[in-house]
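Annotated sample (chain length 303).
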Amino acid sequence: MRMKPALVVLAAGIGSRYGSLKQTDQVGSSGETLMDYSVFDAHRHGFGRCVFVIRKSMERDFRAAYLSKIGGRLETECVFQELEDVPPGFSVPAGRTKPWGTSHAVLAAAGTVREPFAVINADDFYGSESFRLMAGFLSGLRAEEARYAVVGFDLAATLSEHGAVARGVCEVNGEGFLDGIVERTQIERIPGGAAYKNEDGRIVSLPAGKTVSMNFWGFTPTYFDHARKAFIRFLETNAGNPKAEWFIPLVVNEMIRNGAATCRVLPTSARWFGVTYREDKPLVVRALAELVKAGEYPSRLWA
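Output written by the structure step:
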């Protein structure tokens, strides 16, 4: 009998551009957070439990403000991502305050996740269809398989009207698998599409309909073994760089290149939105209210 997939929620970060703890910010009509909608969608599409990656210093407030609302409805667990969590023989470089990155956050769940699992950001809304697609993919996997997936969104539907954003730009082959993903920063809407500023400061346009990752991944526990080894290589290479970050796509790209894993792209027409900037919040509140009015969500998720 296959286990129900787990949902790993990356909730350890504080949004510097947003200016507050976005993970517990209320945007729903009855005080719901964006995490509430993700957990609700995961639960109704067959995920068995949720593992929240937070910092130890957040635990008391997080449990009081969030977990108390959903307790008893599905299994939940907190694990901790700390800057000091590095392999034996390594230490945190002097002056380093920046978190190690999303792949480091996923590794925080390695001690508790034994089943196929999805990974999401705490401060994004992915839509019910995205969870349905990922649940369908993960439910067909065995824990020992290195078959992964990423939900693919249309870039145009993920841009902010209030500033530049970072997105994982996907290269998808003709069979629907990921050939590679590149993290692009400073992506902005321009007439007729979008563009980003490259390393040389040159503006590069992106074609209409480009597929991007919003950090909604599907993995099996095989990811952890590869990630542990990759983290050592990252630390060796970036020992003198206090701002280097270790993102999930770095591990996935390496595994694809080495033939260690495949990654299916799950295209979705689901509506994505988030609160990259404080000015985005009213738009998110209005969009959620429209979804409630349309009957896609109850007015009180945990009533």
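Annotation: The two ends are 32 Å apart (CA to CA).
Annotation: Confidence is low (pLDDT under 50) at residues 14-20.
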